[in-house]
Amino acid sequence: MAGPLRTRFTDLVGVEHPLMQGGMQWVGRAELVAAVANAGALGCITALTQPTPEDLVREIARCRELTDRPFGVNLTILPTVTPPPYAEYRQAIVESGVTVVETAGSNPAEHLADFKPAGITVIHKATSVRHALKAEQLGVDAVSIDGFECAGHPGEDDVPGLVLIPAAADRLSIPMIASGGIADARGLVAALALGADGVNMGTRWMTTAESPIHQRIKEQVVANDERSTQVLFKTLRNTARVAKNSVSDEARRILDEGGAFEDVRELVNGKRGVTVYETGDPEAGVWWAGQAQGLIHDVPTCAELVDRIVGEAQELVRGRLARMVGDVGAAA
Asked: Are 257 and 295 contacting, i.e. CB atoms less than 8 angstroms apart?
């Protein structure tokens, strides 16, 4: 069993290891979040996966039955035809006594007005340094900086983590979590070296034993490589990275030929994405996955994954990297 890794992030949210499972639509449910929490990392229930605020209250309670460790809730604001009742979801989070919230999408100011008076620690996900700095100015407690490699919405700047993480670290004073393209100990050590205080993984947590999606989809992620994603909606300035399949190929073709969102609406419908996770058919619709697929080769339990990442990270620092420093000293 690997010993804890202490950073500003672990101190902020009260977990043992600088690992986070952020919001994942249709995936961030109580059984996964509790397993992540019990392994010593920070898990987050995805609020909008729950159909109503009342369902969210029940899901938070279900998670509490499965763990006595800290966990959070993700609340994401994205452009939509019929916006959900965000204020009611915020009220459900506050009244449920949640202590950590991950916000994402648009400006978090309206969230902060409810969460900060309740003493909730707010981690805001940003895809650029300028947005991260704005979130810090608004009063968030930490930032999760999301590189272009990530699943979901990587923003419109196309900056990968190797540049984005240190660029953000140079200018932020609050704790920062690195996100996008991270799935193992090497990613954790690299992120810490680049100035982050922890890492936020999505696709890697999705491919664990406790993840509430069909086993065939987990096996598909394992079979995929780093090229097995597709970037959609670039022309609409709402870029999204998804798993590459026949549906995403068709949507990409239509959009590249000048199509509008209405021309692909049925292809990218979220209900079809749910069907993927429920039935195990990877061609049933568009579903989220990042380039980290190329680094995922098994489906461990969350406890096994955390122990592996933390243990191997410590071995990297004390072993390979320490020997390099020693060799330089010997040569001098």
From this structure: no
Q: Is the pTM of this model over 0.85?
A: yes
Question: Hey, which bits of 166-291 come out as E strands?
Answer: 176-179, 198-201, 229-232, 240-243
At 214-238, the pLDDT tens digits run 999 999 999 999 999 999 999 888 8
pLDDT value at position 329? 53
**Measured distance CA(317)–CA(42) in Å, rounded:** 23
Find all residues with CB under 8 Å of 111, minimum gap 6, and list them.
Answer: 75, 77, 86, 90, 101, 103, 122
CA angle 242/248/250 to nearest 5° reads 165
What DSSP element (H or E) covers 130?
helix 129-138
CATH superfamily of 8-212: Aldolase class I (3.20.20.70)
Contact 155/128 with Cβ under 8 angstroms? yes
Rounded CA-CA distance 14/19 in Å is: 12
> What tens digit of pLDDT does each residue of 22-62 get?
999 999 999 999 999 999 999 999 999 999 999 999 999 99
- 152 secondary structure, DSSP code: B
- Six-digit token pair at 208? 């664990």
Name 259's Cβ contacts closer than 8 Å, sequence gap at least 6.
none
- Euclidean distance between CA atoms 240 and 231, whole angstroms: 6
Q: What is the 3-state secondary structure (H, E, C) of 180-191?
A: CCCCCHHHHHHH
- The residue with tokens 């994942």 is 24
pLDDT in tens, 151-196: 999 999 999 999 999 999 999 999 999 999 999 999 999 999 999 9
Find, among 252, 240, 251, the residue nearest to 154 by Cα. Answer: 240
Q: Residue 153: what are its φ and ψ, rounded to 5°?
A: -105, 105
Burial class (CB in 10 A: 0-12, 13-18, 19+), 167: middle
pLDDT at position 327, please? Answer: 62
For residue 4, give the DSSP letter: P
Domains of the chain, residue spans: 8-212, 229-288
Digit-coded pLDDT (tens) for 265-275: 999 988 899 99
